[in-house]
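F.,

This is the one I mentioned.
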């Protein structure tokens, strides 16, 4: 049967998933007529080579190499510890790190092995929610490409050798008070590490400290110092905002503050049940998750941000602001912002991103001051991350080139890869007489240093760190180290000349001084809670009154640099879950792309996948082009984090290295040019896979269009006999920001395998939950939607009717189940499923018996074999666990007692699960909401998973202003 290639109703806007749908290309029509997006034969590569290729961090996800595992200590117990009940998990309150900031988690451990991380519900910043990096940290723990033992010039040595070498270094340093000693580290929030650095300075007063971070730490500090006269951290009070205005600031996108910002924004969004609780205005050059959620999105090149900031300031009455020339579209957008902010003193918030620099930020700060937002919706603290008075990487390289550096200690950063190639860090390191690297991997920087010391993962070490709000978390080990590794505090103790210490000695010493006589009680409380109550105190500062000039912009195109949405600055490049996770706006996997506007692509006669060359000054890189609907015409976006050579077996030699053309002086916005090359590549993109036939897939409604509850569609089939509980789910599209936290949580909870780029190109990715991305409107100015699509658990499920062996069944609580050992692999159920949510194991992705995968799998979920179908189960293992707990206590299951993995992770609380037989449950209340609708309702499948439509402010208003 031929499948339709459009989503256009007779009387509504056309919904499209990619530009291929708009081209009416016959090849695309052929592509979608297959049940799977491609009838793809696997290459002639032998299975042994396939497994070797897909090894490393695929271990947890379902693939591994054939060599013997090093994870002997992670095998199940031989002697059961006292008090341990096999089959019952233990939970530990700890934290993992992102750019030095604590991400507070509750770690689930089975038989001593961590298998799942979820946000700490008691923590004030995250409130139990998480992001993709937090979820994936458990996979990074089991990465067999981690540095396993200390080495010198690439040859393994003992820690005794390390101690002897450090002793010799210390004697040389002591002779001249540390003259020529340099310490280079990434930003850290650890009170203990900062205390140890201070002690190091006291021992060697002529030593100098330098900080390097690729993802924006230094730029933010420089911008705030220019704006406020001192470096400060900005804290957005989004929960208290009626209006939010952003200039190229993706505050809902990935980063250390994503969860806190998403929570606050969504909380304000839901203040009212009959209209959106806040309004979001966004001016941006490259589409972002934040821009996709904006009611009014202005498309403007990155170089226009300082101009827009000053124009806004002038219209809002900020003294000294001129009225620069703006376009008609910009003027209309500004007028709407001004009207929205009227009579809302202290209830608005203006923010700007890194591409606008201090020139835009100073006007934004003065607007917030003028509108009474300072101290209300915008609060300041002293920088949480330190060291505060550290030098820069450029200053370090300058000192090396001037032969002022004799010893270099690199702590947990990788400047040989992620620094601008202009700085030429690699050659500088080679010229240093003595160099030592401490890190999780033997990466690009470690390979250049004489000594490499393996760092313990946060889940296997003692430490402390602050979250973005300044709240301290105590990191406690969830498992004993797999390898011969040390924590950063143990290494620093050696640098300070201390004897071997207990793993927690340095941390206890720090907090002994803070807690005083109440140490034991407060220490135990901190370990129990996972954090120490008390955020960073707020400070006051006034923005500068002078105008900060914008750098001269010369060049044909704006070149914008952004961290990659899934591998960030490259530190997660060897994590298979994140490589295969579709990126929020492009749905590209296993690579980065060079994003351009449709107009720019047309100008060069290029299509997505064509190779182009980007030139910034004399430097150039080439990579695959991606046509990004809604991007500014003269802006090119480059994504960091790829092109690595020593990430590991998963992350090496993928994509292009944007750091090669990133200017040191202007790391976020440069000017350059672009030209098309004659080559191209087939990108592993998921959006057009598993397409739905229908229309009105992602709905939006205006406040005046909210309907009363409609009666349920009649069915020709007799209803299923219902048990006491009937499970259902509601997903609020107005809150979904497309962050993929739910997808990553589902992968970790349900042992979902990673299949690799070739199989993704064939449409064989195994994710049980996908975030469908849709557009409406013109390709140059579209409106974007995110729609999570798990199994619908239909009451009248076509898959159940089609399975010839009854492997897919319907239980009394309404859950559509898969009986794996019945499945014979006909894939009839997938053919019959109109929602395309079933996944088939074309290969046996299970690992050999000695694989580290077995230490990381959730033992409550079956690991599937080749030839069987799998899909979302509503986390049936959690449902059954709740039944057991309720039966033991002779009580009914409470509302919200069962929380699915996707629901638990979602930072905006867009997913709600519960008992629809209980009229007072949250899920039942939402199913009575006026925005409630059923996906593909016309098919009569009566799904248990339903949706709330997204709010639209006004039918007649254009998003472009």
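My design for it:
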């Amino acid at each position: 049967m031929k499948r339709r290639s459009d989503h256009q109703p007779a009387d509504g806007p056309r919904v499209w998933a990619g530009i291929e749908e708009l081209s009416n290309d016959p090849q695309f029509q052929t592509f979608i007529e297959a049940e799977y997006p491609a009838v793809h034969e696997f290459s002639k590569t032998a299975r042994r080579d396939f497994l070797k290729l897909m090894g490393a961090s695929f271990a947890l996800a379902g693939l591994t190499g054939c060599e013997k595992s090093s994870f002997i200590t992670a095998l199940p117990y031989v002697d059961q510890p006292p008090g341990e009940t096999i089959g019952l998990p233990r939970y530990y309150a700890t934290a993992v790190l992102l750019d030095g900031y604590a991400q507070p988690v509750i770690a689930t451990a089975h038989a001593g092995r961590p298998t799942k991380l979820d946000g700490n519900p008691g923590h004030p910043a995250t409130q139990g929610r998480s992001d993709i990096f937090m979820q994936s940290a458990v996979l990074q723990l089991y990465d067999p490409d981690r540095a396993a033992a200390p080495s010198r010039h690439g040859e393994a040595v003992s820690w005794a050798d390390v101690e002897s070498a450090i002793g010799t270094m210390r004697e040389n340093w002591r002779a001249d008070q540390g003259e020529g000693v340099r310490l280079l580290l990434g930003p850290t929030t650890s009170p203990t590490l900062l205390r140890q650095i201070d002690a190091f300075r006291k021992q060697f007063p002529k030593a100098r400290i330098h900080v390097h971070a690729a993802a924006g730490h230094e730029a933010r500090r420089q911008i705030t110092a220019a704006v406020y006269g001192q470096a400060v951290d900005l804290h957005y009070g989004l929960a208290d905002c009626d209006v939010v205005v952003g200039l190229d600031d993706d505050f809902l996108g990935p980063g250390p503050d994503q969860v806190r910002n998403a929570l606050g924004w969504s909380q304000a969004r839901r203040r009212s049940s009959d209209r959106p609780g806040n309004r979001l205005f966004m001016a941006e050059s490259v589409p972002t998750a934040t821009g996709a959620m904006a009611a009014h999105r202005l498309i403007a090149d990155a170089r226009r941000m300082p101009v827009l900031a000053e124009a806004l300031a002038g219209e809002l009455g900020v003294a000294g602001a001129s009225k620069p020339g703006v376009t008609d579209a910009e003027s209309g957008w500004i007028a709407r912002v001004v009207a929205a902010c009227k009579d809302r003193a202290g209830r608005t918030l203006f923010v700007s991103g890194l591409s606008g620099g201090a020139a835009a930020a100073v006007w934004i700060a003065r607007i917030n001051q003028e509108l009474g937002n300072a101290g209300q919706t915008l609060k300041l603290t002293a920088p949480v991350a330190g060291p505060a008075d550290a030098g820069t990487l450029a200053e370090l390289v300058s000192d090396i080139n001037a032969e002022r550096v004799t010893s270099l200690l690199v702590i947990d950063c990788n400047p040989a890869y992620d620094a601008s190639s202009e700085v030429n860090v690699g050659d500088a390191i080679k010229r240093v007489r003595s160099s030592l690297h401490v890190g999780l991997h033997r990466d690009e920087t470690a390979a250049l240093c004489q000594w490499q010391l393996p760092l313990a993962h946060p889940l296997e070490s003692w430490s402390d760190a602050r979250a973005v709000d300044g709240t301290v978390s105590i990191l406690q080990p969830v498992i004993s180290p797999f390898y011969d590794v040390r924590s950063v505090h143990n290494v620093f103790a050696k640098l300070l000349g201390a004897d071997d210490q207990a793993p927690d000695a340095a941390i206890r010493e720090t907090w002994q001084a803070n807690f005083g006589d109440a140490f034991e009680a407060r220490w135990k409380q901190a370990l129990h809670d996972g954090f120490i109550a008390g955020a960073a105190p707020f400070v006051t500062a006034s923005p500068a009154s002078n105008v900060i000039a914008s750098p001269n912009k010369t060049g044909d195109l704006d070149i914008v640099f952004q961290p990659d949405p899934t591998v960030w600055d490259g530190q997660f490049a060897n994590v298979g879950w994140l490589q295969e996770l579709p990126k929020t706006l492009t749905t590209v996997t296993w690579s980065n792309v060079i994003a351009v506007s449709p107009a720019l692509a047309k100008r060069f006669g290029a299509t997505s996948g064509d190779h182009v060359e980007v030139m910034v000054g004399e430097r150039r890189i080439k990579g695959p082009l991606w046509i990004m609907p809604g991007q500014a015409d003269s802006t090119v976006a480059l994504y960091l984090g790829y092109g690595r050579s020593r990430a590991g077996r998963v992350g090496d030699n993928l994509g292009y290295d944007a750091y090669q053309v990133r200017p040191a002086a202007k790391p976020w916005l440069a000017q350059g040019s672009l030209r098309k090359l004659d080559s191209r590549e087939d990108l592993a993109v998921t959006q057009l896979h598993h397409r739905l036939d229908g229309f009105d897939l992602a709905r939006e409604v205006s406040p005046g269009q909210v309907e009363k509850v409609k009666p349920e569609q009649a069915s020709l089939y007799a209803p299923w006999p219902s048990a006491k509980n009937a499970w259902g789910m509601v997903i609020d599209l107005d809150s979904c920001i497309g962050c993929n936290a739910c997808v990553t949580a589902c992968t970790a909870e349900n042992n979902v395998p990673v299949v690799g780029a070739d199989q993704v190109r064939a449409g064989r990715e195994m994710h049980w939950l996908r975030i469908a991305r849709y557009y409406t409107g013109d390709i140059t100015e579209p409106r974007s939607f995110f729609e999570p699509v798990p199994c619908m658990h239909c009451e009248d499920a076509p898959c159940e009717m089609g399975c010839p062996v009854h492997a897919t069944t319907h239980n009394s609580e309404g859950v559509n189940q898969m009986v794996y050992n019945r499945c014979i692999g006909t894939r009839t159920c997938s053919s019959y499923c109109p929602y395309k949510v079933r996944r088939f194991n074309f290969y046996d992705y299970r690992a050999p018996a000695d694989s580290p995968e077995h230490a990381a799998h959730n033992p409550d979920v079956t690991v599937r074999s080749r030839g069987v179908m799998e899909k979302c189960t509503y986390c049936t293992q959690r449902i059954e666990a709740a039944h057991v707990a309720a039966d033991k206590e002779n009580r009914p299951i409470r509302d919200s007692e069962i929380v699915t993995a996707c629901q638990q992770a979602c930072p905006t609380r867009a997913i709600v699960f519960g008992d629809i037989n209980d009229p007072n449950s949250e899920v039942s209340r939402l199913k009575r909401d006026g925005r409630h609708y059923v996906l593909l309702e016309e098919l009569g499948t009566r799904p248990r998973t339903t949706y709330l439509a997204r709010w639209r402010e006004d039918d007649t208003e254009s998003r472009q202003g």
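The longest strand covers residues 669-680.

Talk soon.
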